[in-house]
Amino acid sequence: MSTPLRLSSLSRCFQGVVPSVIATSDVQGIPNVAYLSQVYFVDERHVALSRQFFNKTQRNLDENPFACVEILDPLTFEAYRLRLKFLRSEKSGPLFDTMAMRIDAIASHTGMTGIFRLIAADIFEVQSLEKVDGFLTASPADGSAQGPSLDGLRSEVRGLQWVSDRINRAQDLESLLNAVLEALDEYFKFSHTIVLVHDESSDRLVTMASRGYGRSGVGAEVPIGQGLIGTVARERRPLLLTTLEGDLRYGRAIRREAATLSAELGTGAEIPLPGLPDAQSVLAIPLAIGNRLVGVLAAEDRDPMRFGEWHEAYLEIIGNQIALGIDRMLDLPADDAPEPAAVLRAPAAPPVPVPVTKRKTLTYYRNDDAVFVDGEYLIRNVPARILWKLLGESQRTGRTEFSNREVRLDAALGLPPVKDNFESRLILLRHRLRDKCPEVQIIPTGRGRFALRTGATIEMIER
Question: Taking the CB of residue 229, how many other CB atoms lie within 10 A of it?
Fold first, then answer.
């Protein structure tokens, strides 16, 4: 006796990898068939369909509440038919917000905000569910197709222990972020990941670490509410997207045109966000403590089925651990507390070789609050002011050793009195110098201390 089909066992069919189809008819029986953007699993007896542009479908449902929807498993290519009865439309509430988030994220990413949007979540009762026999015979005859392999995914508790241990052993923010991404790669095989930290003063997300990309992208900014990552930050909810190629093709074209225009106008100050040009799936998790946003963790892959509901739910738990770790690092006291004796006795790390060149010209533009090096954009806002302070102090007094405390207390830098994110700003500055001006380096020398090293004659110009 075969086991009755359950909607909850068809989770892959609801990920939208293969478009679903809805068939309706008017009161005279004239049919209409359309593709669906979303078929959302509500419970074992109900699904929700996204209503966006399907005017004919809606008119038919007003006359005749019955519909038929076919969904497809993207791995086994088995089709399933749902016979539905329309119950109601929801234009607000938790269900509507959840379905709208995916559409809003894609609309923001492609420049179609306000045009490509969810009008309503239409709730249907599932009156019957059946497998479409003979649709395809791609599954093995013995029925052994069980979906994606979970080989290498150890127990959930072990995974949480692994990541938590990396977080707890981190000595500073930079090592914490790198350790987290390394653990996700080793444990989940997530090879393309990025962490962005929320800068409350500008209400933007700033890229602080990435893994698996040719360039780090440290310093790339994402406004809250813009694009996939910005939408996750605004909504404080995870977002899982598959089959991105069709949804984002238009957005990528816009991005290329904007980048070309920026280069032509000489305004290419933006640091590009790391990303796969042919990504097919994205999983983004908000990092929050209560209602306070700490940052966003995002992973992407070329495999449209790389991420599933299991990853989404489990990474939410891990995301809480990451958020607490980041918050702890950003909330370290600003004083210069003495280090343990064992640390003081440890030999200092050898200095990093600084390239020797004749001259580097750094220009600070006060109107834009930005620093350029030899005419090329380097950094802006608070990190730019920190760099300008350090270089100026060094040229005036010859000092090369500084402490976090003294820099933080300089009112001219405009640091917020609470949660100044000084550590993340220093990491950002260090990475940008490494990428664009290696002749100037900021080297950690101990707890709350660092040194400025230069391998060139620095000319400072202020405009």
Answer: 28
Helices (H) and strands (E) in the chain, counts: 11, 20
CATH topology of domain 7-131: Pnp Oxidase; Chain A (2.30.110)
Q: What is the pLDDT, as a whole number, of residue 418?
A: 65
- At 378, list the tokens: 């380097």
Q: CA 297, CA 286: separation in Å to the nearest integer? A: 6
Tokens 């030899």 correspond to 374
Query: What's the fold here for domain 341-345+352-462?
Result: Arc Repressor Mutant, subunit A (1.10.10)
In this predicted model, what pLDDT tens digit does every residue of 38-55 receive, in sequence order?
Answer: 788 899 999 998 887 657
- The model's confidence at residue 451, banded by pLDDT at 50, 70 and 90, is very high
- Residue 48 neighbours by CB under 8 Å, 6+ apart: 38, 39, 40, 42, 90, 95, 99, 121, 122, 123, 124
The stretches of 236-348 forming alpha helices (DSSP H) are 244-265, 309-330, 341-345
Q: Please, what CATH class does the domain formed by 156-330 belong to?
A: alpha beta
- Do the Cβ atoms of 410 and 420 come closer than 8 Å? no
Q: Under a CB-based contact definition with an 8 Å cutoff, are residues 288 and 294 in contact? A: yes
| 108-145 core/surface letters (b: 16 or more CB in 10 A; e: else) | bbbeeeeebebbbbbbbebeebeeeeeeeeeeeeeeee
Model pLDDT for residues 114-132, shown as the tens digit of each residue: 555 678 889 999 999 998 8
Residues 2, 131 contacting (CB under 8 angstroms): no
Closest by CA position to 187, among listed 153, 211, 164: 153
Which H or E run includes 433? Answer: helix 422-436
Asked if 272 and 215 count as a contact pair (C-beta separation under 8 A), the reply is: yes
Which uninterrupted H or E stretch holds 68? strand 66-72
Inter-CA distances, 5 with 129, 397, 450, Å: 7, 77, 63
Domain boundaries, the chain: 7-131, 156-330, 341-345+352-462
Give one DSSP letter per residue of 4-25, joined into a string: PP-GGGGGGGGG-SS-EEEEEE
For residue 70, the SS3 value is strand
Give every CB contact of residue 275 below 8 A, 6+ residues apart in sequence: 213, 300
Beta strands at 359-365 and 457-462: parallel, antiparallel or unpaired = parallel
Structure tokens at 190: 């997530």
pLDDT tens digits, one per residue of 60-73:
888 899 999 988 88
Q: How far apart are CA 275 and CA 301, in angstroms?
A: 10
